[in-house]
Batch of 4 targets.
Target 1
Amino acid sequence: MAATGFMELALDQAKLALDNLEVPVGCVIVENGKVISSGSNKTNATRNATRHAEMEAIDVLLREWQSIGLDQPLVAEKFAGCDLYVTCEPCIMCASALAILGIREVYFGCANDKFGGCGSVMSLHESSSSDDLTGRQDTRPRGFKCTGGIMAEEAVALFRNFYEQGNPNAPKPHRPVRVDQQ
Amino acid sequence: MAWELIEVAGNLTSLQHSTVDVLAAKIEPHVANALIRQLNQVCPLENLRHVKRVRRRIECGGKPELSIILCLPFGPENCKNGFSEHVQKVVETYQLIPFIAKVASCPAMSKEDWEEQCKLWPTSYHPPHDIDGASGFKDEELPSIFDCMRTAIQLSEVGNAAIIVDPSSMQIISKAADQIHQHDASLKKNTCVRVESDGVSSLAETAEDNDRKFLLSSSHVRNDLKMEVSCINLWGWKKHRSSEQKRLPSEGGFLWHPLRHAAIVAIENAAERDKMLFHTSTLSTTKLKLKGDMQACSDNPPVNWPKDKEQSAHQECWSDLSRRNMPYLCTGFDIYLVWEPCTMCAMSLVHQRFKRIFYAFPNPNAGALGSVYRLHREKSLNHHYSVFRIKVPEPYLNGRSDFSNKCCSDSAPP
């Protein structure tokens, strides 16, 4: 399946989030050309702002692999053969998490200017960071390859839908939610 | 040595006072403007935007003396004698004599830092107040702040620990220790990780750590224990083999989890508590009110609207007051971490809207709040917290392992 095929599945996950009044971000994780996990953003339902689509999809895999008895080195090996397709550039937290897990490759839709961790605000996918100014030796393993802009318009359209309706869980003073004006 | 609180924004540990070499030269005042223009074009100070191009000093005779930065230490690839052809041309045209100067490698985070930096070479300074949401602390808060850190340190026998506190009531919202290696929700939740009591105190005495810039002592100084801290040794999980590998995880649980750093687990516990205490979901009510709008703008009408019965019940609960009283994530809360968080954890704290972050020990490997990155200074983020480092007195740490063993494990203290 081409990258757009997997991205369409990720967009389906994002629509699922939108249907649940969540910020519409979705993702799938692919191994050997096959989707092995998917996730959609669940930050409102869990009241936990770290439950991004990527984290949801990662937890599905960790649960599954542990249930069949894989240990840490084997799971690390598995992640090294996995690619992630996500509708929006992983944030700084998720990009760090993906680097910790050692995922092989990430394909994303639209960029994330406010907190993107794969090029927009920070570049956590790059193994050799520009920390050289401090003379620090970089001991991080190889980063992951990152490709953006895949079906970005579709991803942005979902965000537009969401923000038109307003984030029902956002604190009141910050942004007028449409329901309040009725 | 007493307990001490330092704002990280104002006093970064190692990065703050580090310098880099640049090539500079003395110039005549009347050519300054032309030179600045030319050099900014051929050799902009890309990674040193806070450094001023020209330094003006008054010599002993009272005569001002100007120096200009020619280029960075490692110029472009086509460099000769340490600088590029363009710079070479400038040097020849104006007959300059380059010398090596030291400049501050990072923007100043406080007025004191800035004054210090300017002794080397002038820099520009933007007070951190430019960023919204920053909040300090009151002196009368200090005792309770130190108390919270004591509690966090006691929780962190091995690895990092996190405690979320509502400063308005000094109530502990949630606690967690690292859960990367072994995790069994029923056993480990909100409790300490145990260590062999014979190991800690004896090894602490022979601890060798050449890195004296970091305030570390007792068991916190030991490299092997440091490597157990999830935020320091991010990739350590890969080599770790769980001793209980034969066991299968309980339903929906994890035996171990590479991302369950203390901060992440503490946030999860706080979110669970939030759901328990404020389970009257205003979200469902909003859903109803939004229903019309949603269907107008979405091709896939949602399938999980609350049923009519719930609808009326929820509408009764709905009021502006209850909405306002319901906490939004961890808005207004503080978190205490024994170790400076890694980038993943630091960003999770941004997402969860914490007000203040306190940590005791810098994380030279991967610390995102002062050591390697300064995430809280990143202007593009939609939320900013204040960061403080608490200096823990060594006598406290030296006595700590015994004390901690006493309160955290069943075994008798040595």
Target 2
Amino acid sequence: MMNQEGMRMLNDIHIVDFVLVDLALYLDTHPYDQEAMEYFNHYARIKNKMAKDFSMRYFPLTQDLAESGKEWRWGAAPLPWEGAC
Amino acid sequence: MKDFGFDGNCDKFPIGMAYVPWQRFDRLYDNLEEGFRNGTIFPELNKPFTGRRCVR
């Protein structure tokens, strides 16, 4: 299901996601700050790519990344309280 | 949105009020994981409670 590499990828996604949260909080009060917006766009692209890669290799983090073929991968993904994500 | 940055002119501010300096975008942590652990990506906002007066 998910190995050490997967856990590391997920941890990196959490870190980049946190950066976006904090940048968004800053941008809420500084809506014209160009530099902050460039950082946000940059890390948003990175996070989207990481989430897509993770979802292809392990399990979809969000339904829109399910890309199911034979089986509905979203349903087969481990549940949050099962400690996998 | 008006910039509420402090231009150093104390006279125009009524006394007895509290003022919070407006955050300026300086820089992020070089190591984002360090920011993640500290709960902020802005080094200047990392103010750990040391159990006594605010000294670094």
Target 3
Amino acid sequence: MLLIECPWCGPRDEQEFGYGGEAHIARPAKSAALDDAAWADYLFHRTNPKGLHFERWWHARGCRRWFNVARDTVSHEILAVYRIGEARPDIADGDR
Amino acid sequence: MTTAFRTAKGGRIDRSQSIGFRFDGQNYWGNAGDTLASALLANGVHFVGRSFKYHRPRGIMTAGSEEPNALVQFGLGDRTEPNARATVVELHEGLVAASQNAWPTLGSDVGVVNSWASRLIPAGFYYKTFMWPRFGWKFYERAIRHAAGLGRAPEGKDPDHYDKMHAHCDVLVVGGGPAGLSAARAAAMTGARVIVMDEGPEFGGSLLSETAEIAGRPAMDWVAGVVDELAERSNVRLLTRTSAVGYYDHNFLVAVERVTDHLAAPPEHLPRQRLWKVRAKQVVLAQGAIERPLVFADNDRPGIMMAGAARSYLNRYGVKVGNRVVVATNNDSAYAAAADLHDAGVAVTIVDIRDEPTGGDLPLAAFGKGIDVLSGHAVIGSDGGRRVEAAYVAQISPSAKRIAGSIQRFECDAILMSGGWNPSVHLFSQSGGKLAYDRERTIFIPGETRQQARSTGAAAGDFSLVDALTDGLAAGLEAAADAGHRKRGGRPQAPAVAPVITVPLEPLWSVPGRDPRGRTNKHFVDFQNDVTAADVALAAREGYLSVEHLKRYTTTGMGTDQGKSSNVNALALMAAASGRDIPEVGTTTFRPPFVPVSFGALAGRNVDHLADPVRKTPMHRWHETAGAVFEDVGQWKRPFYYPQRGEGKQAAVNREVRAVRNSLGILDASTLGKIDIRGPDARKLLNWVYTNAWNKLEAGRCRYGLMCHEDGMVFDDGVTACLDENHFLMHTTTGNAASVLGWIEEWLQTEWPNLKVWCTSVTEQFATVTICGPNARRLLGELCGDIDLSSEAFPFMSVREGHVAGLRARVFRVSFTGELSYEINVSADCGLALWNACMMAGEKFGITPFGTEAMHVLRAEKGYIIVGQDTDGTVTPIDLGMGWAVSATKDFLGKRSLARAATAAPGRKELVGLMTETPTDVLPEGAQIVEKALESAPMPMLGHVTSSYYSPNLGHSIALALVRDGRNRIGETLEVPLPERTCRVRLTDPVFFDKEGARLDG
């Protein structure tokens, strides 16, 4: 069970959180202008990397805030936690 | 009470306290401090069970939690526990246990024929034999499951209760032997918060079985001193009878504490077991080592056991495992057992594979005592039935590892074996740590760690007492320092211990037998699952070379002991058979739990009414008194129907449905999800989350809306009311309220953080009473004086505020039944008062409470969908024929997906009505719809029935269905193949009743 540092509440057990998939996927402003492939890319396609992954978590059984986490999908090490709207932190994959 | 094999003195048992117990129907005596295994051995009982596959007689093999053989059915009735290891079951007065895997009795077991037929049951037997014909498996499975299986699960409800504990600490020490205690003591001195846990009833680990001295005193004196010191400290928690079973991410460990299993009469207030969930900053792994067996022919007879276990039984429990023993070894450690047994008056012969077992202190001591040692020899077989009677010993040629000389027979009543020791790396491996292979000592040791953990002592491959004490101390200090605690003042010193010189073991993974092909004898590798060296060789020959294949094909390591004593032997045999190096073969992944865990401990208090919250409306008691049958809707209890005297379900539902259509019904709708939405951007939010437009909805008006996920599929619907320009009340379906709120919050926080809008769940703040039927307005008129109820002043799809029955209320004129209908919201604490007032005033109209089933029939008559019943996450608004609720102009969540090629293509499944040819034939929901039923499946399926009821108003069954290209097929007749019959159905419009909606106005 991961120990996740909620930016609002501090470190809490994973069971308090919900997982929200890959982060930094903005909804296209003009969805009607996208062709099917571009829309499918937004809707379905995710990176699923082995290693560094930027992802969203939701403190569902706590403050109910969404936030972003940089996690190594192999070691489950959490490398950074940052708020929604903040820029992706500068972490190089394998750089730890 | 004296027992035949109990020593005159010594051991940690309480000789003043005799304990009576029962095994396989026979009464025995033991002592306080015994395990079931040690007490049986004290009575001379070795034969305690039969093996899993061949039903061979088996005895007690170890003295710890790694025991593969001595699995017993422990306890009686609903407290019975299968597969309990006799080696860890603590004896208590009146204990009852029985052998497993034998029928009708242990002595005359029918399954033993498997043993004679063993040549016909090789590894992979089941895979090979029962694959054909394919449908045969369901017949074979019953027979196989009857013959297989270990113990018996209790059938009744668990009479005990269980607790869970959540704990945090700086340093968690797993294992309370010399290394663990040393680490815990050092860490505690720094002020770090320490938890130290051990499997056994008392701390000491290997020292409990030792004769060694620490600082010039018996080792257990040192243990007692350290435990006393730790117990005094407020920063230390000591847990005995606590097995760490899982090591998960981020230093999260789970352990099971057996609180009352050892008590004859457990106090009521204590839980049987506690599940500990520990989050530790640092972990010290000090679980010691597990002795590995020697793989020789017939190495499984009762009386053949691990040398270390025999030493444990002697020194810890005061039990001699035999009077005449042969010790088979390839290393020094067995000499200690031999020496102690010799001192206790047991006749001992040592058979050492090594040619020159000299140089080590332990062999020297044994020689000094005059014990017979046959070096360069091996035990190559055994004789006996329910107890070993003799060991066959032969000289082994050092190079070819063949039998070199003649075979001698040694009469004996026990054979003690030692193939070396494997560090207990299970938790380390679970934690993600990599194992390293130590070629010199032929062991896997902890390599690179992935978590904040360090292994120490025997668990790290450092087997000597000196190492355990000094390395343990260092590990404790280091762990505390890494957790931010440093010792002030001088560094503590480890106590002085006399060093013991040992010489390396000599591996001999499979001892040659008399029959070189191993056909008549069995060299057991995995005792619990009856896997032999020949099975491993067969797996290699058949190409199952990967360690994962080896495991699954032969089932080695897949028993309840998880191959604690067998794994390394199996790997080494596979390496030899496939001409590879042991590390090249690798190890399988160690998985939790380290020892079996009861479901009760995992469930804890989350059972019965605490398994899941039960939500009840404020009117629940009334429904109960009225005799309602309840239905679970999510966590809510909702009245399903209200049977009157002697009424069945269908009669009750018919009566309720007719009452609503003919006069007046009343429904508790409090469970509907309610979300209060406020803020200047509330409309913007509604425009995003609903498929239709919300800009023009005036205060006091309501609108129905559909919600889609971004994939364009419907996931909720409901009516939202505009209470004020910037204030809305959204209704969601009962089961979906939390997920809709969560979904809205997600979008607001992640995509539209600038929207000025605030959402609050108010589901439980309001009670909702729905009155519907032609007399609904008249009833409301009697209860409410401050709202103009005329159709002009209070039209359909409006909301008004006022007082009903003197209670402040919001009244929504909406309808889910097609009748004139009012949903009256009052503060939750007034719900029952409102309900009672309606029932009283409604008496003259024959007001009839109706449940969810009548509601479903009424809405189905009108073709109103229920999201989650008529939709399943693959259905768009267009599929439902609800294109009228989809805005063409604005963007909304899911809109773009409706235009995707696949979603917009013709021929999708669409919502239609179904009428059966026979009016009384009610289709089962979920039934498949086909063009023409064929004799047997498969047949092309066009869709399925989503809702199906008998409509008393139509005198006909009705159904809703999703059918491919359904709207174009309306009027066609299709077929529904059912197990006993085929139904012919006509496709219709989904609205069956009052198509014009004339009844909405009463």
Target 4
Amino acid sequence: MGSDRKNFDEMLFGSEGVRQPYDNYEKWFGSEDPARLTKKSKEAEAFFRRTGITFNVYGQAAAQERLIPFDLVPRILSSREWTRLSKGIEQRVRAINAFLHDIYNRQEILRAGRVPIELISQNAAFLPQMIGMSPPGDVYTHIVGTDIVRTGEDDFFVLEDNARTPSGVSYMLENRETMLHMFPELFSQIKVQPVSDYPKNLRKSLAACAPHSCEGKPTVAVLTPGIHNSAYFEHSFLADQMGVELVEGHDLRVVDGHIAMRTTQGYKVIDVLYRRVDDEYLDPLNFKPESMLGVPGIMDVYRAGNITIANAPGTGIADDKAIYSYMPDIIEFYTGEKAILKNVETWRCSEPASLQYVLEHLSELVVKEVHGSGGYGMLVGPAASQKELSAFTAKLKSNPGNYIAQPTLSLSTVPIFTKKQLAPRHVDLRPFVLVSPNKVSITPGGLTRVALKAGSLVVNSSQGGGTKDTWVLED
Amino acid sequence: MLGKTAGGLYWMFRFLERGENTARLVEAGFRIALTRSTDSETEWKSVVTTAGVKDGYGAKYDTFNAANVVDYLLRDTTNPSSVISVTEKARTNARMVRTALTTEVWESVNENWMTLKSALKKPVKETELPAILGIIRQQSALVRGALHGTMLRNDIFDFAMIGTALERADNTARIIDVKYYTLLPSASFVGSSIDNVQWETVLRSVSAHRAFRWLNESEMTSSTIAEFLMLDARFPRSLAFCTKHLVANLGYLAKDYGERLPCHDLADSLQSKLKKNDIGSIFETGLHQFIGDFIRENNAVGAQIELDYRFNG
Amino acid sequence: MKLKITHTTSYSYDEPVSYALQQVRLTPMDNPQQKVLNWNVAIEGGDTELTFLDQHKNHTMLVRVEPDRNEVRIIASGEVETNDTVGVLGKVYGTAPLWHFQQHTRRTAPGKGVAKLARIIGTTDSQLDDLHTLSRAVLNAVPYGKGGTFVGTTAEEAIISGGGVCQDHAQIFVSAARKAGIPARYVSGYLMMNDRVDQDASHAWAEAHLQGLGWVGFDISNGISPDERYVRLATGLDSRDAAPISGVRMGTANESMIVSLQIQQ
């Protein structure tokens, strides 16, 4: 499957040999014994299992815990490449926060006609309880994971803005730890910008968003749906690394107008809650009444200004795939600048002309659900059978507003280590962004996801994807 | 610390301790069955009773034989106290309290689970049993080693120790409870082979046969054994030892938090009962009565700790 | 007209409740139809944890029931000066945009029954006349009657059950108005029935937004537009949004509620 077009490989550059950022790595690799690398690769897997870096798979037996395969060849970016990327990401994230504030308050962008009202009014991610609400420091997306793909030397595209609860940062950190552990000598030869400050920065960034009511040092906590959640490892990992409590809904209560956690010595107020529970489950008093995962009354406490919820409820309105197609306009509207990073051309199937085009070119396009994630419910046209294509045609016709389509990008490849040699595989990149009232900080690198099957373009861990350590070189 | 975390630690270490104790019981039963030609059915039955799973076992099997008992106690997932069940529960609790554990402790518990899951995947053949029991013991020692070697001595450690002490006291007490008649002076015919077997079973069930011989070389009587298991604070599975640690660790919590709670009084009273009695007066009140009271009060301390430190709300 | 109101809601539980919260919207606000002279919400057996304005700018209190209580009592009382604006609230807006009042909720999601009623809108040149016709049609389709519906009944379900109370009438009305493209909202409040001091219960009606007039009220159950006998407490997209009291509690206790409402001039 995949495209037959020539892909841009980030390590090997045609007949000219290795691309510059990979120079030193290639020299090291050339001198390595493949047998030793195979052994190291097995060691890494045992290490992940022992440390419990696993994720639970939805729809499988409760006890199923899987490893995300780790590939030992790093994905390497030069500091020049990174500087440009991070500028583009920062611009985008600032625009997203301005957009969210606007949408839940004056709605200037709708009044100006730059984004159609229906896109918001008919969007399930619009959260009425946020109307007229300004979160502490006007930060909505404290943590963002921007998905980026590359198709050429200077061609970076943003694929998705994950503004709700982006996951994967624990893999970014553990992948680096694993590499340091397996190949210490590499890091003395090649200077790589560190990622290990992320937990410290996350805590600082969250604390900087504490509500005005907070006196003294803010208490931060991580809210998890519990040990059966697919990302539980990450929740406990982040809480542990930040040195804050990992709480569940039933640990929390409203006490003296605040949200407080039950400790062995009574209830203790939480100022900033990094929640990994979805909006609709967050508060049974205000949202889904049957939710057992949430904290009754937390939205009331939030509106009263006594807690910071990160990310703010209702941020999904900014990372919706239909909104995505307006992102260049959104960036221009709020920053007055052209978008630094490109958007992938997107057809909104809600528009009849676009739908027409999509149906005619289905076998060339990637079609995604507007609210989908994890690579589920999507069609990769060039790889689809005739039967799948006609099934999707029916879906598109019956509910066009639920879909967008994009051209099949020839994603860049980076080699993976297979048994004895290197083989190119498609990758994407999710850098992690922290937003506080006066700072946007982006950890150099991020999570590189790689499609382990030759030619495959689906990098999602739930569908056979793996990960790589991502290096941004020092200048 | 979260109340839930305290509860998770406490139960994690209760489950770990329970798994180890069950393995010990199986080991003793197996040993007796191998070396003595006495009634092994009765022996296996008392193993099941001591493990506190007689009802569950009875619902599944009609007879008490080595294969069924070993399978039920080690690897039956429908038995909530089987080694595999409690190992899984210990790990689930460890995942829940992951942020309170050092990497070493977490990894040892995770490895314990992985190792036992694979070792107990298929029914255990008689020839493999000693090796598998050895693995269980060893894994358990690794967890304990990680705990003692890497954890801060703070409230986290205290709750871990409290869970261990309560569970172990309960286990030793139940062994005495099931075998009390063999320890009564009236039933003692020194030198008879029946008693020797019974005494050895009891001692092996708590891995005390060697220690006891070293300490009481010449004097193997029902009352010296009972005294050793209950009142000798040198022996790490005796009631006195467990209770001493229970009181000590609760004391650290009280000091740390600056607050004495009802559970402290209950634990103190449990300990003082052991302190103010010698083995003679215990026999006078009635061993069975005494040990029954101990089990109830030990459980009451546990329940009170759950309340006082807000494990559940 | 000066209205003197005392509204007591008592909840009792058949076993002590360790943790329970009540969200309370029982504080009227000033607007062209009413001026609050004095008002107080007292809680017996509970504490006011905080107060805030919700997305509809309703004054909202979060009340926590004192642990292990069997009973909590919420007493709202005060005096409100009202004027008759022939049902017109006017061009009074909060932060929520008008299109928000065209959004459906689970309770107002239109089905066949609502769609049929919605077709009334547009039959004449006057939206105002059409809405009055709609109001009568709703009452006609769902005559007043207790027992057929409950607090969570949706507009469509109420039509199917063939009978309902003021909550159902208001919800069907807003659902049909929205279906026809008119912004509409649910209102909870008080109505003084002239012939008595002790009123049965608090009341609910609807408001629709018309070009030129702004917000206009429709009391479907009584077939009129609100006059000086009405006091507005809260508004929202549906009865959940504007509920005077809604709560959650831990445990298995059953709850029973007694309401007493006195309104006099």
